[in-house]
Amino acid sequence: MRKLLPLVIDVVLVIVFCAIGRRSHDEAIAAGLLRTVWPFATGLLIGWLLALIIAGRLRTPTRFDGGGALWPTGVVVWLSTLIGGMVLRVISGQGTAVSFVVVAATVLAVFLLGWRAIRLLITRRMQVTGASAN
Question: What's the rounded Cα separation, in Å, for the pair 24 and 11?
């Protein structure tokens, strides 16, 4: 389960992003959440597949960072979620106003890159603290 944690975190954050968006527009959250989530969730999964391919995971399992790295995994997942989500929204007849793209890019960056950046800072801090304790 621990290996899936970064993916689960990303999925939950994409759902939260969509729920916040629906709520901010006074739309029923539960009733239309799936319609709002699926383009971004699909982009997210494509991003994860791209990250696996980029890392060479399909050939050498030891090279993949587990999904929690800011670069390249986080950036690839964020961009794929954003771009894939917007393209699929257009294809499915949903809106993609410029202001929405900007807001989505910002919120998804904070969500999908933010937790990875915090994890990186904590890991580095622990390494420095651990190194100075020795």
Answer: 20
**Average pLDDT over every residue of 19-29:** 91
What are the CB-based long-range contacts (under 8 Å, 24+) for 70-73?
Answer: 70/113, 70/116, 70/117, 70/120, 73/6, 73/116
- Average confidence (pLDDT) over 17-35: 92
The Cα–Cα gap between 41 and 5 comes to 16
User: pLDDT tens across 52-109, in order?
Assistant: 998 886 565 556 778 999 999 999 999 999 999 999 999 999 989 999 999 999 999 9
The amino acid sitting at 33 is L
- The DSSP 8-state label assigned to residue 56 in this structure reads T
125 Cβ partners below 8 Å, 6+ apart?
none
Q: Would you say residue 131 has pLDDT above 90?
A: no
Report which residue type is found at 17.
F
Dist CA 52 CA 69 (whole Å): 12
